[in-house]
Amino acid sequence: MNTTKPTLPTPDDAALWYEDRLYLADQRVLPERAEFLSYQQAPEVAEAIRAMVVRGAPAIGVTAAYGVVLAGRAAHATAGVGWKTAIEADLERLAASRPTAVNLFWAIRRMRALIERLDTTDPTPALLREALAIHEEDRAANHRMGDLGAELIEGPTDIVTHCNAGAIATGGYGTALGVVRSAFAAGKIRRVYADETRPWMQGARLTAWELMHDGIPVTLQADGAAASLMAGGSVGWVIVGSDRIAANGDVANKIGTYGLAVLARYHGIKVMVAAPTSTVDMEVASGAEIPIEERDSDELLSCGGRRLAPAGCVARNPVFDVTPAALVDAIVTERGVVLNPTTEKMRALMDSSMGE
Ligand code: MRU
Q: Domain check: are 121 and 154 in the same one?
């Protein structure tokens, strides 16, 4: 079902919600159109994640959690007391949708832990409560990260961000853009430079739109324009989100983040990564072990339906890269800030509880 809502989502009104079925704002057509798609079956949710209807690591995790609710409902309707066996295929489909954002696997693991505790009666209400909790916790984590990240910025300064780590990439408010929102409210940000972020243009389409919606000064730039901007001396911080942070603090994020971090170090600019602890994967020792998604080369070879490169041209399309921990000045999570990350500091963070 396609529905068109009269208003676009706001920073605190995430672009996904559950009301008997899952609704997703179609991020492929934003900001040109606000179209909401609805889903009643988990395999369709898995396909929506793969096809980028919904994107951004925390939003993918929240979506997968709601996908498990739909899977549980269908499994109980078809298999009754045998629903725990029947749900497995859908859990696997959801987990196979995209490989890099660990929030997806984190959310499915958390839903699985609940499934193990449930009996053979209809699991839908309990699964929904857990999915709603995951969603609400993510929104709260973003507000907390906003406060913590903003404290690190002296300002007033200019910021560079890459991709979209905003409200629509999360349960609400945003990770990197949550920090931007909080820091702007505190008078610490003059202007945000948003990299357009080839080939999906998350910066041009989504970050520029979110910041303009909030009245935060934003200038779009080509991905290759960051170096000359940095040389001008107005930028104090690069602030980005992450899809997976390894145990040693290496950060996987949208392709191009690594290059930005190298540039930032050369120009004496600091790099902040804002991500909830659901993005931290202590099971991978370093970024070298993070699976990097490679998408269809057609995404690069064409743009807006128009072929760019000559017929037969070969293209590589890795959609994430790994920034070594040594280039990261601060990892901001809802549990606290890790400066100059190392394995020991990341372990201490993950062993701590909220607020410590
Ligand atoms: O391919 P995408 O659009 O899902 O990639 C998203 C990013 O790389 C974001 O920076 C990351 O998920 C953090 S979102 C809060």
A: no
**Taking the C-alpha atoms of 333, 262, 159 and 242 in order, what is their torsion angle to the nearest 10 degrees?**
-30
Residue 214: CB atoms within 10 A of its CB come to 17
The answer to whether residue 240 sits within a structural domain is: yes
Check if the beta carbon of residue 150 is closer than 8 Å to that of residue 188: yes
Looking at ligand 1, which residue's alpha carbon is closest to its atom 15? 165
Is residue 27 located within the same domain as residue 104?
A: yes
Asked if the structure places residue 105 within a domain, the reply is yes
Pocket around ligand 1 at a 6 A CB cut-off = 55-58, 101, 163, 165, 169-170, 175, 200, 202, 240-243, 253-254, 319
Q: Look up the domain containing 303 and give its range.
A: 146-352
pLDDT per residue, tens digit, the chain (356 aa), is 445 544 566 666 668 999 999 999 999 999 998 899 999 999 999 999 999 999 999 999 999 999 999 999 999 999 999 999 999 999 999 999 999 999 999 999 999 999 999 999 999 999 999 999 999 999 999 999 999 999 999 989 999 999 999 999 999 999 999 999 999 999 999 999 999 999 999 999 999 999 999 999 999 999 999 999 999 999 999 999 999 999 999 999 999 999 999 999 999 999 999 999 999 999 999 999 999 999 999 999 998 889 999 999 999 999 999 999 999 999 999 999 999 999 999 999 999 975 44
Active site residues: 243
Q: Which atom, in ligand 1's list, is nearest to the CA of 253?
A: 8
Q: What angle do CA 268, 163, 334 make, to 5 degrees?
A: 75
ipTM of model over 0.90 = yes
Pocket test for ligand 1, best of 202, 255, 290, 323 (most atoms within 8 A of CB): 202
